Each structure stands twice: as structure tokens, then as C-alpha cells.
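Hello again, I could really use a second opinion on something today. Take your time with it, there's no hurry, and the full record follows here:

___
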Amino acid sequence: MTVDPSVARYATLRNLPPLAGLCSMEAAVHNNWSVEQSVERLKRLHYVLKRLHETFTARITSEPIYELKTAFSYHGYLCAEHVTAIRKRVGEMREPPLGLEKVPHPALERMMDEVLAARTTEELVAGIYSVIIPAVIEATRKLRHDAHPLADAPSVRLAKLLEFEFQEIDGFGQQAIGCLISAEAESRISDWRRMLESCLLAAGGLDGTGEATEPIPAPRYSQQPYQYQKEPQRDARFCDGFNAGVNPEAFLYDQRFQARDKTLMMYYKRLREIDVPEMMASILHELRDVEPWEFHMEMSRQLWDEARHAMMGEVGFVAQGLDWSKIPINFTWSRNLNLQLDARERHGVLFFIEQGLMPRTGKRYEWEVGMESGDPLSGMFQDFDWADEVLHSQIGRRWYVPRYGSLNEALAYGDRCWTKVVSHWREYLQQGLTQHRNWWPELYLAACQRWQVTPDPAALAFQQTYEDSRADLQKLS
């Protein structure tokens, strides 16, 4: 396009920045962009981000490494946020029906199928963080550069925000690759990584602006459909995971004990919440083609919050100078729900528990304990934990309750589902999977030594288990 020389001489009042600061007048007079081009690129980004969200979520339960479980929870949530923003933007550009569920190119489908089916942690990390995330960042940069800065300003803004957050993800990913992938592992997975890169080339790049220079590679790991693994996996720091020898709720609600001592149990309860993402991931995966995207968006936020709560417990123990890896962080709640209930039933249990946290004896009480404990960190964490759980209760009322006749019916169903779950407390003991060791006295004595206080004899003697009750203190049949 030939630009009239007068454009360069265009002056605003007192030389104020033109066009709301979006761009110069010289940039604005160019016209080599269209709605069709914008939509095409956004749809490709949408597809990859939605599949990436699916992959992060699907691999949480089976991934043993705690730091990756929490990172996958966060990065999956960020993908969900940007998927939602792109869906909204595409819908603004004359696009009903949106066609967002169509595969934009079979090579992109092959790439995402392969990463979902990666056999090892090293392959999964390499595929996501050395191939897909850099490709997403490159595509957003090109969109930001190519889109008309005034006519398509909303898409440019989306690209800026996406690039900003994905650079953070990339930073994590590059560190993770350096920590987890040895030279020997790299030699094993290099061919597979090149296969993923060939998928991008065959698609003309993630955004489709390049020339397709290669045929679509044959599948390797994705020859068979991906099978979700319901059994939660934990790394070696999580000792004695079947141990249900301490009932922290019973201690927390016992009026004999001091708030300072109860804080330890609350940090344990927070860290143990890593089992909620392990369970929620199964709901999202099994309902991925059943529930609308808005359901997955909100539930992904809740899943991320629960991972964040687990990290609050981790931070709490670190701040106290206590080694959490010496405490059995029980995982049988997520395991039993995943293996014994279907997705709807698991959601029912989740909703029933959330609603039970709303009365004064729930999250408000935990906040009061934290504030009374003399530990400002505990008070702050419980303040935000309470706020998050109020949000989760609302999410449940939007997406769970409408399936039933009333709130009371929805609660009753969730209670029945939880009652169906067999705890296997005695079976785990008989099978030698755990001795249900009472780990509380050891933790409490270590904390009292740090606090330089004399242990409370009653607190030290606490030994109530989960043998005949569940977390809401209801007796098991």
C-alpha cells in the first residue's frame, strides 16, 4: 500500500499520542488485515490451548512429582482462561456458528494427541515446554505484530496478555527441563521431539502462516487412544500414603486444644488437599465431551485453587521449620473416589463437602482458629482459603444443583455418594499397605521444641483415627 506523505505530517492536539496510544498514524493507515485472518489464527490458538488444557488436567493424577502436579493445575487453569477469552473474541466477529470444535489442521491434532499420550514425565515435560509452549508464544507474537492495531485492537490485547502469561509458563518449563531431563533422557526422546516439531511444520506452523514443508508424521504413542489413569501417583517424599491413623478434623473441632496447636493440623489439611486436584481432574477428563466449556472453565479454576491450598500447607510447614515429608500425606480419599465412583458421583461428593464448609463451623471457624493461633501466616492463608471455598460453593450451585430438583436433593445425593465409598481402612492394614501409625505426637513435639513451649499433655495424647468416621466426622457404617 502506498501511504500518502501527509500521513507522516499528521499532528494531534499538542502532540498528544494519537489513536488512544494504540499505534502511530502510519501504522493505522495500513489495511492488510481482515476479520477472516484474525479468526483463523485465533481458532488455531484456541484448538491448541484447549487441547493443552486437556493434557495438563489429564496428567495431574498420574504424575508423581508434586511440583508438576501443582504446575499442571496452574498452567491448565491459565490455558482455560485464554481459551475462554478467545471464544468470546471469535464470537464477536460475525462467527456464529463459531466452529470452535473443529480441528483446524490434522497435523496439530497429531501433535496434541502425541503429547497427551507421552509415556514418561520427561517426554511430557519436553513435549509441552520445549515444543508447544514456544510455538504458542511465537504465534501470539506474530498475531500481535500482524493484526491491525486499531481495527483489531481486542485481538491484539488478547495476544499481549497471552504472550505475557505464557512467557511465565515458559520460564517454569525451561527450568523444569533443566532439572528433569538428563543427557541420557534427552538422547532417548530427541527423535520424538523432532516428530512433534515436524507436526508443526506440516501444519504451516501453529498459526498456519508458514508453508507446509513436511508430511504429517505417523503416530507413535497415540496409535492407541489415551487411557486416563485414575490411581493417584506420588513421589518418594510422600511416605505411607495409605495411612489414615490421624483424624485432623476431630482434633480441629475439639475445644480442649489450643488454636496454636490446631494450626499444625490445618497446615496438614491444606497440604493434603493435593488429593482434590487428583480427584477433580478425573471429573473434568471424563466429562470433557459432555459438559459445556463454561463448566470446564469454572471447575479448572476450582482445581487450581485446591492445588494452591496444598501449597499453602507446604509453605506453612516450611515456615515452621518442619519437614512435611516425614508426615504421611494421605491420598486414599482421591484414590477411593476415583476407583469407586463415576464422575457425577464424585462431583456429588465434592459439592456435599463444599456446602458443609459454609456454616460457621466450617471455613469461618478455621479462619478464627488461624487468627487466634498467633501465627499470622495461618490467619492469612485461612482468610483466602475461606474466600476460595465460598467461590467453589457458588460454582457447585451453578453447575451441580440444576441437575436435581432442589438444593436439598442435590445435597442428599452427594451424601449418599460419599456413603457409598468404602474406606478400606482395615483392608489397607491387613494388606500391609500401612500400619496407620499415629504420626501426630512426633510432629507436635517437634513443633513445641521449635516454639520453645511445653507440650499440652491432652494434645500429645490425641490418637483418633479415620477407622470409623469420615472427614465430616460422620460415623461410617
Remarks:
- Residues 153-180 form the longest helix (28 residues).
- The chain has two domains: 35-223, 248-460.
- The two ends are 79 Å apart (CA to CA).
- The mean pLDDT is 95.
